[in-house]
């Protein structure tokens, strides 16, 4: 079941990347985590708005028509909401330096006090 779910997500990820590829050829890097959040939110709203018996079946369509439909749906997704978050590198000076506390083991203190 997990493999099937991953394959579906990978297909949707690739459709979104292909639908939003710019003329220069730069495709956005889609985050599976953010994609799942978007799907989950949309699916819950879909269940409320439209009962499952009104959904159309895509199983009877031929593969080129299904691919065209997936790409048209992927064009509606905002790539900014599903792309991988990019952070700037951390400033090395901002990392706190640890001060040496001169740790002394309790066993050494106890051993030095016994006659």
From TrEMBL:
Superkingdom to which the source organism belongs: Bacteria
Region annotation Disordered: where it falls in the sequence: 81-115
Protein name in the entry: Uncharacterized protein
């Amino acid at each position: 079941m997990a493999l099937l779910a991953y394959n579906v997500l990978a297909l949707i990820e690739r459709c979104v990347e292909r639908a939003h590829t710019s003329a220069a050829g730069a495709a956005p890097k889609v985050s599976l985590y953010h994609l799942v959040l978007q799907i989950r939110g949309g699916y819950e709203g879909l269940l409320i708005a439209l009962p499952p018996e009104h959904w159309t079946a895509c199983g009877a369509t031929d593969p080129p028509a299904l691919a065209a439909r997936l790409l048209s749906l992927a064009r509606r997704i905002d790539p900014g909401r599903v792309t991988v978050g990019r952070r700037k590198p951390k400033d090395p000076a901002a990392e706190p330096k640890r001060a040496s506390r001169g740790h002394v083991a309790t066993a050494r203190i106890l051993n030095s006090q016994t006659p």
